[in-house]
Design brief:
This protein is 73% helix and 0% strand. By secondary structure, the chain is mainly α.
Length: 256
């Protein structure tokens, strides 16, 4: 399921369209079967309100899946903001007008460029960049070295705190990129979609034209809902890597 949600949007939309058409076909097939086999239709058809049995369950399942998706997107936004804030604070701390540590400044700038160019743009936040790991280790050693350079302990402690927050935000970003969606909710949506289409066909078996109209409306709603949720199921699909840091923050220090 996760591999499907990671598909490019045209392929994802095509997959959702196939699901909608399958539901439409299943509903119409049941209409023809009910009319061709068995006895009198009025005795075999349930009341129209019977549609609510599966339709309500379908709507609830879709709502649970949507809640999962929107919650994931909210966490992704907060993780990106936290990482951006940590990068900005570390760059500001290493700037010439602050601690004047050009090596640290360049390391943070290289890290920001690496995660934007590789982890975000190439790996889609699903896999860590080995170079980014090395840059973080280099930054850690530079912070440790600050204790030997008579840097006030308060500033060292603040830098350590910013560094820890940077690592935590990156870890969350990569975890969310691999997705924490509950796939069973999506399977439930697909199963209830087919059952609802069959239910619509069953209730309207006495009127094939009405069945086609009802199934068309339901399948259009199904397609739009699943396509929109599919777009946002990958929280970084619509985000730009520049959210992590501004280009001005990555400019060389004034003293360079």
């Amino acid at each position: 399921m996760q591999a499907i949600l990671w598909l490019p949007f045209p392929l994802l939309a095509l997959f959702v369209l196939v699901i909608a058409l399958l539901c439409f076909g299943a509903g119409l097939a049941l209409v023809h079967l009910m009319r061709r086999f068995g006895g009198s239709l009025p005795e075999r058809l349930p009341q129209a309100t019977f549609i609510s049995v599966t339709a309500t369950a379908w709507a609830l399942a879709l709502g649970f899946a949507a809640s999962d998706v929107f919650s994931l997107n909210g966490m992704a936004d907060r993780a990106a903001q936290a990482e951006r804030s940590s990068i900005s604070r570390l760059i500001g701390m290493a700037a010439p007008e602050a601690l004047d540590r050009p090596e640290m400044y360049q390391t943070v700038a290289d890290y920001a460029q690496e995660i934007m160019a590789v982890e975000w743009s190439v790996n889609h936040n699903r896999e860590a960049s080995p170079r980014a790991n090395d840059l973080l280790q280099s930054l850690r050693l530079q912070i440790i070295a600050m204790t030997e350079d008579n840097v006030p302990s308060v500033l060292v402690g603040k830098t350590i705190s910013d560094f820890d927050e940077l690592q935590d935000a990156r870890g969350i970003r990569l975890a969310l990129g691999q997705s924490v969606l509950d796939e069973t909710r999506w399977y439930l949506v697909f199963a209830l979609s087919i059952l609802t289409a069959l239910n619509i066909g069953l209730v309207h078996a006495g009127s094939p034209r009405a069945a086609r109209n009802a199934l068309a409306v339901f399948c259009c709603a199904l397609f739009m809902c699943l396509a929109i949720l599919g777009i946002t199921a990958d929280p970084y699909r619509t985000m730009h890597p520049s959210l992590l840091v501004t280009e001005s923050a990555l400019a060389p220090p004034a003293s360079a």
